[in-house]
């Protein structure tokens, strides 16, 4: 799997740890940097490439993970989930088909962050799950099908 990894300057240390973890798990990590103080720019670049299929999934890190999630979700075809525990990491993929996860370097320690990324990357979306109609509805709304 090809995984895009990016962050803001404050989260560079955790991003580097997670980038290296992705590689150690046998995936290709694509580093989108950490120099841009406007984290939305990094989120947009990662989200666009994930949505286009240049990368299979994305991992974004900022102080809380919230800003990166909001920014990434502005990109059509990007589905970013801000995660804080292993269950959320698993369900972001299994139930919600999130193609990007976001984490907060100021609220998530490196060992927990590694567990979250590993849990997320181990799983694939189950289109037969009870959540499938919900995911389908989100995708249809994004395509212009209103309420």
How would you describe this structure to a colleague?
This protein is α/β, with parallel strands linked by helices. The protein has a single domain, classed as Ribose 5-phosphate Isomerase B, Chain: A. It is 45% helix and 16% strand. The protein is built from six helices and five strands. The chain has helices spanning 12-24, 39-52, 66-72, 86-94, 110-121, 132-142; strands spanning 2-7, 28-31, 57-62, 80-82, 100-104. Strands 2-1-3-5-4 form a five-stranded parallel sheet, sandwiched between helices. Strand 4, helix 4 and strand 5 form a beta-alpha-beta unit. Helix 1 packs across helix 5 and helix 2 (39-52) packs across helix 3 (66-72). The chain is globular and about 40 Å long. The termini are far apart.
Write a short abstract of this structure.
The chain has helices at residues 12-24, 39-52, 66-72, 86-94, 110-121, 132-142, and strands at 2-7, 28-31, 57-62, 80-82, 100-104. With 147 residues, it is of the alpha/beta class. A 5-stranded parallel β-sheet has the order 2-1-3-5-4, sandwiched between helices.
